[in-house]
Amino acid sequence: MGSVGLDSDFTGEGSMDLSGTSNPTGIDGLLERLNNEEFDLVAIGRALLVDPNWVNKIKEQKEDEIAPFNKEALTSLS
Q1: Would you say residue 60 has pLDDT above 90?
Q2: How many beta carbons lie within 10 A of that of residue 34, not counting itself?
Q3: Where is this region: Disordered (predicted)?
Q4: Torsion of CA 8, 12, 18, 24, to 10 degrees
Q5: Rounded CA gap, 6 and 26, in Å?
Q6: Max alpha carbon distance in the chain (Å)?
Q7: Which residue has better confidence, 57 or 47?
Q8: Where do the structural domains in the chain lie, given as residue ranges?
């Protein structure tokens, strides 16, 4: 699926261009596709790079507290 919980997908992560930001978004579309058995497994990576508490914030319905992702996050660990 790519970019779970983010409002846009980043392609070409290996590029030198680190501009751009993707903001948090709900997971309703993901849940619908999961319930339709389109896939068996979901991995969450990019959102967790910026906000290690992403899962708890989703669980507690605190999406407004999730930090936005940017490509610069790919150069370091949270």
Answers
A1: yes
A2: 15
A3: 1-27
A4: 20
A5: 8
A6: 37
A7: 57
A8: 21-75
User: Any alpha helices (H) in 1-78, and if so which ranges?
Assistant: 28-35, 46-50, 54-59
The residue that leads in pLDDT, 56 or 45, is: 56
Q: Who contacts 43 (Cβ-Cβ below 8 Å, separation ≥6)?
A: 4
Q: Is the pTM of this model over 0.70?
A: no
Residues 43/11, Cβ–Cβ less than 8 Å: no
In angstroms, the CA 70 to CA 58 distance is 19
**DSSP assigned state of 24:** B
DSSP class of 72: G
21 - beta bridge partners? 70
Whether 24 has a pLDDT exceeding 80, the answer reads no
Residue in this structure with the two tokens 């596709």, named with its chain if needed: 33
pLDDT averaged over the chain?
Answer: 75
